[in-house]
């Protein structure tokens, strides 16, 4: 009641007000929504968030599934490998790791020094608007451990008899993957997809720390949640920030609903 339900409905009311934390909220109706439609920085934050989500989510899920399939074959020291691959998913959104990432991709960082060894001059990853978001996408892909563990559990639930039957019918590794693994793993893929989409649309820490809380350079890392924070906690425009939060809530709900509707056409449940 105190930390979820009351703030939930309070923010809904504040979304229709002009509220700066110092004075009582003033009802303005849909003025915040009209301002959002004309806000170039908000549109830029949506663009950054969509690009980040569209690129990083499929790549991170593909990496998670690939590593899970490698670990699924009962290699020696499996618990150690599983822990090593899972650990980044616990640390990837932490401030310390993002700071480390910023130094790795600095002009004189480890990445550029490694590229220099093979004769390549690395760009200014974190200060060049055309590369800053790329570094955060790479960070997101690196944190594939959580979906990997779930994929690994799902792979172990697929009966070996299906693979044996497919092999008898002459199916090679790729055909077995397409015709057996993917259909039977589709509920797990669906779950990981929904979770990853929701998490990526709410990205905040990576952009905040990498840009020093500005969304720079040139708003290239201005995630939607970061811009919401800037409007609410630096400009004290809490009414506008509340409206932004509710727009994000509606967008995530709609996207999740679309995923559930589309799932009936590609998710297979072996009942």
Q: What proportion of the residues is helical, as a percent range?
A: 55-70%
Instruction: Sketch the topology as an H/E string, one letter per element.
Output: HEEHHHHHHHHHHHH
* Largest beta sheet: strand ordering: 1-2
Q: Tell me, rounded to a whole number, the average pLDDT.
A: 91
What does this structure look like?
By secondary structure, the chain is mainly alpha-helical. It has helices at residues 5-14, 31-37, 40-71, 78-91, 95-104, 110-117, 132-142, 145-155, 160-168, 173-201, 205-211, 224-234, 238-266; strands spanning 17-18, 26-27. Helix 3 (40-71) runs antiparallel to helix 10. The longest helix has 32 residues, at 40-71. The radius of gyration is 22 Å and the shape is globular. The two termini are 39 Å apart. The model has no long low-confidence stretch (mean pLDDT 91).
Care to give the gist of this entry?
Helices cover 69% and strands 1% of the residues. With 271 residues, the chain is mainly alpha-helical. The protein has a two-stranded antiparallel ribbon with strand order 1-2.
Topology of helices and strands:
Blueprint: H1 5-14, E1 17-18, E2 26-27, H2 31-37, H3 40-71, H4 78-91, H5 95-104, H6 110-117, H7 132-142, H8 145-155, H9 160-168, H10 173-201, H11 205-211, H12 224-234, H13 238-266
Antiparallel strand pairs: 1-2
Helix pairs in contact: 2-13, 3-7, 3-8, 3-10, 3-12, 4-8, 5-11, 8-10, 10-13, 12-13
